[in-house]
Amino acid sequence: MTDRYAVIGHPIAHSKSPSIHAAFAAQTGQDMSYEALLAPLDGFAATVAAFRAAGGRGLNITVPFKEEAWRLADSLSERARLAGAVNTFVIGGEAIAGDNTDGAGLVRDLEWLGCRLDGARVLLLGAGGAARGVVLPLLEAGVSRLFIANRTAERACALQVHFAGHDARGALGAGGWHDAAGAAYDVVINATSASLSNQAPPLPAGLYAPGSLAYDMVYGRGLTAFLGQARAQGAARVADGLGMLVEQAAEAFALWRGVRPDTAPVRAQLRAATPPLD
Ligand code: ATR
């Protein structure tokens, strides 16, 4: 019998996950289906329960349900526990295991883009859910510096405290935009939601090291205000979050099926259908 998977969110109609997972399944010869499930804003748990009762084997969870998924899961991976959010359910006979593949997706995409994270100096902009989800995988990738800067400095400092137990190298720092000044970074990652209103965080000059990469987690918006500002401030390269989207999906697929798909053709296909960064 074909195994059922789905992405659940509100709204969900424009999700790219069904086509990504369909491509992975075709490529790896897995007998599975993957659909988009619209859950009412007050009906996440009921929608999950119905999907499970119908034999569903796994779910991806997207906006606005990732925190609720974290609370609903019977068990959590360490990275999901620390992220405070779940984007993947592995549904077993007895229990639902919650995981979060967003951070691993970002790390894989950065590697795919040719960034050497071991020893890298990274500036992470934002202190909400998107930022929180990537801190542990970046630390585990061996960055030498991870400065979290946020409009509300206290939220960044709270994240530093939250992850202190995983910061054996003393890489973490935190503060407001101007506390990031006076140092240069190899990678600057925008995890704020400012790009959704095409605004750029007001960053001080001089943050971009020679050869550095500016990375915006949003995708499908062309050259965002943040990426434009990064170019003007000296970033050597810019990237959007389309690769992260594909890589977090591949990570979830591997959790479910035990097979890691080749992301290259799916990346190329989505890139061709997305506004260019130039
Ligand atoms: P998400 O899940 O997308 O991270 P969130 O938890 O609401 O959403 O967090 C939004 C993040 O974007 C926060 O870091 C927020 O800064 P504050 O903590 O100061 O609110 C940041 N943000 C939102 N709009 C912004 C803007 N116009 N400029 C800079 N930062 C912004």
Tell me what you see in this structure.
By secondary structure, this protein is of the alpha/beta class. The protein folds into 2 domains: 3-100 and 243-272, Leucine Dehydrogenase, chain A, domain 1 (Rossmann fold, 3-Layer(aba) Sandwich), CATH 3.40.50.10860; 103-240, Rossmann fold (3-Layer(aba) Sandwich), CATH 3.40.50. Helix content is 36%, strand content 22%. It is built from 10 helices and 12 strands. The chain has helices at 17-28, 44-53, 66-72, 78-83, 102-112, 129-140, 153-162, 225-232, 242-257, 264-272; strands spanning 3-9, 32-38, 56-61, 75-76, 88-91, 96-99, 121-125, 145-149, 172-175, 185-190, 208-216, 237-239. The strands form 2 sheets. Strands 2-1-3-5-6-4 form a 6-stranded mixed sheet, sandwiched between helices. The protein has a 6-stranded parallel sheet with strand order 9-8-7-10-11-12, with helices on both faces. Helix 6 (129-140) links the parallel strand 7 (121-125) and strand 8. Helix 1 packs across helix 9 (242-257), helix 5 crosses helix 6 (129-140) and helix 5 packs across helix 9 (242-257). The longest helix is centred in the C-terminal third of the chain and has 16 residues, at 242-257. The radius of gyration is 19 Å and the shape is globular. The mean pLDDT is 97. Bound molecules: 2'-monophosphoadenosine-5'-diphosphate. Residues 126-131, 150-152, 155, 192-194, 199, 201 line the site of 2'-monophosphoadenosine-5'-diphosphate.
